[in-house]
Amino acid sequence: MMLQNEEFKSYENGKSLLNNRFKFIKHLQSGSFGKVSLAYDVVNSIQVSVKVIPKNFHSLQEIQYLERLKSNESICQIKDYFKIGTTNKDSYYVLILDYYSNGDLYDLVHTRKLSRDEIKKLSNQLICGLKYAHSLGIYHRDLKPENILIDYEGNFKIGDWGLATSIRFNNEFNIGSEKYMSPELKIINDKSCGTIIDCKYSDYWSIGVTILTAILGSCPFKEYYTIEQSFENLTNFKNKDIFTDLLKYGNDEEIKNRDLDLFLQRINDVEDGFDEIDDEKIDEINEKIDTKEKIDEKIDETKEKIEEIEETDEIESDDHLFFSMDEQESFNAGDYNTEKVDFDIDLPALVKNSYQSAKSWCDYDDDFDFELEISKLNLNKLNTNNDNDKKHNDKKHNDNEIRVMETEIFDIIDV
């Protein structure tokens, strides 16, 4: 966000105090809706967060919401606000907020795994703050780890109320961050999943996914996944049933069955860790790993065998030729659609292949003149000496070995 205000630029450059009170320390965050910096309050001798946002209706609404939410400790606290600038072009609102030195939940879950007690603390504090906001008719609409701030004592606070609304039932879709957005909020292929959004239950979904992300270390609901695919990612998650009470989707009745109180109760009842996998799932995973290793071993053996065959047994080009009976000319089978080959006479099978002739050698009468029939085909290059017979037999033997290896691999897969 580029600011056109000279007073704020002077503050950022360390040349002056903002509002004769706040000394710039460093930048914290910047986005399309505003900028946040760390400052020192020279009056109260404390560090504070300074958030500057455009002067418009939504910004004024955010300030009003924060003023109403000041009495709840699970919500980011506003200390003061004022306006800078004299024209529409350089006018901004400046919000003075508590500074939370431990960053946000997003950074925390990407740094280390949260303990069981931390997950319970997170769940209780977020739900406390959310229920308080809902009791005042304020709906957040952008709950996600990046908007959960952490103070120096490890307490969690709901911040960034810039997308909040006091209209519980509305038709504004695609509001919030997609991975944490409830299914009914999304517009897919220019069509919405519903007609009216109940922001209360939409917030329930988002807070559930936020807590689930804190447990797993990453969000299982990806932008490119369907809801069904995302839930498949939770197959091995031991405590997935806890979230089924909150992450309900479908028609209006299903959405209204999202139960925040039951969810919190089940979270508080957990005695073990939240990220453990069922013992049965561990056995299944280990079995799949063993099977894959066996398959990989057989594939490597087969590749080695094929390489040996290629090195010791060069296949002559004549072995890959079919012969046209009409034109008496040869062509390579790789350049021809063999399914369309139409022989005018029943040709005895010379080698074993997928296109057997109607008769084999033993089907003909004893007085059948083979030499005469072969001469008709002009097969001048046909070599029937013992060396080629030996090569052909060796190749057939090696082919059989490869087929045995393939059979063993598929036997493992079937297991």
TrEMBL record:
The keyword rRNA-binding does not apply. It is an enzyme of class 2 (transferase). One of its GO terms (molecular function) is protein serine/threonine kinase activity. The keyword Kinase applies. Its EC number is 2.7.11.1. It comes from the Eukaryota. Residues 285-319 form a coiled coil. Keywords: ATP-binding, Coiled coil, Kinase, Nucleotide-binding, Serine/threonine-protein kinase, Transferase. It catalyses: L-seryl-[protein] + ATP = O-phospho-L-seryl-[protein] + ADP + H(+); L-threonyl-[protein] + ATP = O-phospho-L-threonyl-[protein] + ADP + H(+). Signal peptide: none annotated. Residues 22-264 form the Protein kinase domain. GO terms for biological process: signal transduction. PANTHER family: CALCIUM/CALMODULIN-DEPENDENT PROTEIN KINASE KINASE-RELATED, SERINE_THREONINE-PROTEIN KINASE CHK1. This is non-specific serine/threonine protein kinase.
